[in-house]
Structure formats: C-alpha cells, structure tokens
Amino acid sequence: MKYRFGLLGKKLAHSLSKIIMEEFFDESGISGEYLLIELKDHKSFCRFASNALKEKVFDGFNVTVPYKEWAFSISKRKKEETEKTGSANVLYLENNEIVGANTDVYGFVKSLTNNFPDIKVGRALVVGAGGAARAVIYGLSMIGVGEIVVVSRTVEKALNLKNFFSEKLNVPLAVKNMKEVEENDGKFDLIVNATPVGMFPESDMSPLSEKILNRISDRGIVFDLIYNPIKTKLLRICEQRSINTLNGLEMLVLQAAESFRIWTGIYPHTEKAFKKAYKVLK
Ligand code: NAP
C-alpha cells in the first residue's frame, strides 16, 4: 500500500513539511508521498479537502494558515484537542466520516517539556490570538499553568478567544494590551510568541519590547513558535540577556510526527527529520 498525504494552505513555498514527512516515510519503511497543495480561498479548501478524503484520493491532510478553523468546521468528528481549540491541523477519514485532530497542541507541549522537563509555569504571556495561540493556551492548561495573559494587536480577536475558552479552560485567562503589560503587570515564567512577527523575510523585527522582556522571571523561558529563521531577533535578544529560549522547529517536527502516527499507526523517529529541516534553515 502506498499512502498519499498532503499539506493544504495558501502560501506553501517555504514549507518544510514535505522534507519532514518524506524523512518519516524513509525512517519507518512506509511507502508514501506528501504533496503541497495551495488553495486560494476557504471554499476551494473545503471542497477539495472533503472530496479528496471521501473519494479516497488522499489518506490524510495537514492544514495550515489560513484554513485550520475551516478544517474544524468540515470535521464531522473532532478529537478532544480539536474541540477545545476550535481548530484542526490534521484531517483523515474514519468510517466514512471526516475526523479533525489538532497536533499543534501535542507539538507545543512536548517540545516545551522535552526542553524544560522541570518546567513549572505560574504565569504565562501569550502574544497573538490566532490558531497557534489557541493550541498554546490549551496546551498550557494541560501542563497546569496558573494564569494566562493574552495580548493581541487586534483586541477584538483576543476577546473572542477569551469568550471561546470561557467554559473550556480550568485556568484564568486575561486579555490585556501591550502597554498595560509593559507598564504595570507582574512577572511571567513563560512568554510565547504566537504571531508571525520576526519570521522570514521580515527577520529584523521582534514582537516584544525590552520592557516586556523585563517582565520575565528569573528562570523564565521565551518560546518563539517561529522556526524560520531558527534564531529570530527575539531569541537573539533573549540570549544576550541570558533568558532561556526555545524556537518552533522541534514543535513543527513533533506535530508532524503525531500526524504521521494518527494516519499510519506508527510514530516515526524524529531525529533525522529534525536535522534535515535544520540544515535547510541554516
Ligand atoms: P494566525 O492564525 O494568522 O494568527 C496570527 C496572529 O498574529 C494574530 O493574532 C495576528 O493578529 C497576529 N499578528 C500578525 N501580524 C502581526 C503583527 N505585525 N503585529 C502583531 N501581531 C500580529 O497564525 P497562526 O497559525 O496562529 O500562526 C502564528 C505563528 O505561529 C506563525 O509564525 C506560525 O508560523 C507559527 N506556528 C508555528 C508552529 C510550529 O509548529 N512551530 C505551528 C503553528 C504556528 P491580528 O489579528 O491583529 O492580525
């Protein structure tokens, strides 16, 4: 049997997913291909994804910006993380029904806890209120964080997110603006950048001011979900200030590995895929 999976999104020129998935096929001795498919709007996304799965032209899809919420809406059955985040980055067919999963949550939590096994987060600051922020917030609730503060350029989006989570989280979640946090908020044990600010080709930008970085607690961590470049401007500044850092590459590889497991039943070795992706970015 030869599997066929694909990534659905809008702009995929710089995607590393094909390189990662092809390495997983090699590593696990499974025969398959992974295609990158750009779709121009949500209507074409919904039509293509539904038909290709139901007609068994594809065995599964990963979904990226801007279609993760649409992937949620076309999923007849939803895994718990999908339900809790309102977004799906993995689609497949089971008993003739489209199932939506969210492996960003797994990737985020696993990467964080792999790198900081003793992590204890009292307060966390999440910058951004899009799909990745939802996965991060739910992931943080899973590791027992004490309080989450969200800041977002568009305040309505953060308030929508707060409403969305209102009865789903066992953690207090506050929405604040950047100035408020800069001027008079307490310390954070973890800050997560869940915006594309600082991503290639606009690598000379940082989503956080020095004032915000002053809010990091002594053994605090800054996790930038961006993986291209590997070391964003934000992470470079943090390193200069001896703040613990983590980039998004391992999360990317781990969410892909969990997708692969869902589709094939086999969790692949991730080391070689990580090294290959790292080499491309270096
Ligand atoms: P998204 O749904 O489009 O959300 C992006 C968020 O960033 C929105 O809240 C948006 O605010 C904000 N934003 C965008 N441009 C901004 C700017 N110039 N200044 C301030 N805020 C800005 O995207 P996403 O899926 O959440 O992804 C966010 C980032 O996470 C991307 O860099 C993506 O590559 C990364 N990511 C990494 C992984 C991984 O595996 N490492 C997985 C998922 C995502 P507005 O509403 O105001 O536009």
Structural commentary:
Helix 1 packs antiparallel against helix 12 and helix 5 crosses helix 6. The radius of gyration is 18 Å and the shape is globular. With 282 residues, it is of the alpha/beta class. Helix content is 43%, strand content 22%. The model has no long low-confidence stretch (mean pLDDT 96). It has two domains: 2-102 and 250-281, Leucine Dehydrogenase, chain A, domain 1 (Rossmann fold, 3-Layer(aba) Sandwich), CATH 3.40.50; 105-247, 3-Layer(aba) Sandwich (Rossmann fold). The longest helix is centred in the C-terminal third of the chain and has 16 residues, at 249-264. The strands form two sheets. Strands 2-1-3-5-6-4 form a six-stranded mixed beta sheet, with helices on both faces. The structure holds NADP nicotinamide-adenine-dinucleotide phosphate. Residues 65, 104, 107, 128-133, 152-154, 157, 194-197, 199, 225-227, 248, 251-252, 255 line the site of NADP nicotinamide-adenine-dinucleotide phosphate.
